[in-house]
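Components:
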Amino acid sequence: MTKPHIKLFIPGPVEVSEDTFQAMSQPMIGHRGSGFQDLYAAIQPKLRQVLYTKNPVFLSTSSAWGVMEASVRNLVAKKVLNCCCGAFSDKWLDVSQRCGKQAEALKVEWGQPILPEMVDAKLKTGQFDAITLVHNETSTGLMNPLAEIAQVVKKYPDVMFVVDCVSSMTALKIDTDALGIDVLLAGVQKAWAMPPGLAVFAVSDRALKRAETIPARGYYFDFLEFKANHDKNMTPSTPSIPHIYGLNFKLDQFAKEGLDNRYARHRKMAQKTRDWAKANGFELFPKAGYESVTLTCVKNNKNIDVSKLQKALKDKYKVLIDGGYGPIKGKSFRLAHMGDETPETVGQLHTMLDDCLKSL
Amino acid sequence: MTKPHIKLFIPGPVEVSEDTFQAMSQPMIGHRGSGFQDLYAAIQPKLRQVLYTKNPVFLSTSSAWGVMEASVRNLVAKKVLNCCCGAFSDKWLDVSQRCGKQAEALKVEWGQPILPEMVDAKLKTGQFDAITLVHNETSTGLMNPLAEIAQVVKKYPDVMFVVDCVSSMTALKIDTDALGIDVLLAGVQKAWAMPPGLAVFAVSDRALKRAETIPARGYYFDFLEFKANHDKNMTPSTPSIPHIYGLNFKLDQFAKEGLDNRYARHRKMAQKTRDWAKANGFELFPKAGYESVTLTCVKNNKNIDVSKLQKALKDKYKVLIDGGYGPIKGKSFRLAHMGDETPETVGQLHTMLDDCLKSL
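Structure:
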């Protein structure tokens, strides 16, 4: 508690505001009583608006991985196609197999996008009844062409479309129902700017129907349990009530800002950060045209000492950036610009970076 | 936010103190960085002391049900014996089956305890490789004779002993290793007096070895993933960092009070509440000798209007008691006395009850 506050510019968890913590610190209520039901019911229309869906939006007390695993457990009877383009999307293949499911990778190099024609080629084999896509691959700072891929998936009515928007949800418009997304999921410690501990996910009617046919779904992540409890404005198990208070607060904050303004702010922060990188002679790690709107993965083409840069920023300015994920550690670094950040605070980070780069 | 604060005397969630919320509101840290690893490492010895175990104690961002399901998924190859004596223990049978496992109930009437000889009779059939026991059945206010049952289970070295201590952990000594418990689990919204959203569980070596032999454990609740990450002072998935801050704070609070003092306080609150009930002509719901130390389930033998009593307490005193669970709603009511409560605050509740009972 006596440690200095290091401000996070890593791509999650991100900085959480004082008023968010305050909202989360309200007195406990029984999760089977009317107080909780009122809270849950109040949140639903706001969530549906932010996620552009008429589907119920469930609240899972878990990280997003819980819901990623749940999607496989609840929806896959034949075989799942896991689109792999970075650490998190790659891992989904492993998780699918660990759930005892048949799974196949559609794999591209890190930094490259999943393209609609690749998806089409796989799905047309008729082997698959589900596909998983990570919209915004956090490890590489890459955003896949969701709308174009969605058009392809729509051609295959038996294929469930599961989309991980962990680090993109609320930072740009994701038109869930129009895109035919069957499960849209995210944790709240990224663009939501809340502490980790809760996942939100929207599930389509046809996904619920599919779940009815799948055995051994278990209990904790059973989509049908979520639906049955949702119908009573409750969750299957005791939820993290502080997070649900926080979610409600954040949704009201989003409404005050206006969603379009929110999206414009995220685009502006992203552009500013890409411009900063290029002005400093850096390239971007993801393929041009597929850069993420919530974080910039900078290619270390100048071969700077990334860990030294991190340390300088932390020591001098009490801010933390990420030094690259797994195999691209040191060969890249990541700057997050999401949640409650603004073009101004992101600009401040750039100034700090400029200063610390000089001293390397 | 403008609603009045209703103090909870329901058996979970219970009242959370201001300083706990403050501890939970510290700035976020990266869950893959040294700050988090230091926090995790600092908590471990404290947790092991409170749980009387040399085993690692894992932190699951979920409710206790997640870990209850996990225990079945990770440990059952043959068949699990689910000891059923109330709503939560009964449900474990259903959950076991939903995980695709062979399961059988050892069932007694609500209010009756599971007795060691019943367990022996079942286990000696040789059909089972795991047994689940709810130590403190929250729905009936009954505490099963854990030590005596443990002696029986020890006779069967192939049987994994899974014990749910959701509403008893930290309120009395549970000698995990001496009792041969393979999985000891609880959520933190009961005697821990934290908000819901985290489960803690200790897993024995032999349970980890058993897990190695079980397919389709999945990822989110895979015991071996917990162990592999534990060895690096991390959790498999992004954890609820606020809850882990809170856990650390609570553990320090327990140490300051002294565990023996803590247990004595809980015994005193329980005795005082049982005395209050009897002095008012009420019987206790659970069989004599098996009353819970953390909550008192009062039998409504006087046929009072329980919901009217609840309403009077809420309106006049801003406190909430529970009106009985499921099939015994109205035929019983429950008074919790755990967590941060004291004989004094419990005495205040009794005075409020006295007053409201007069007005019925």
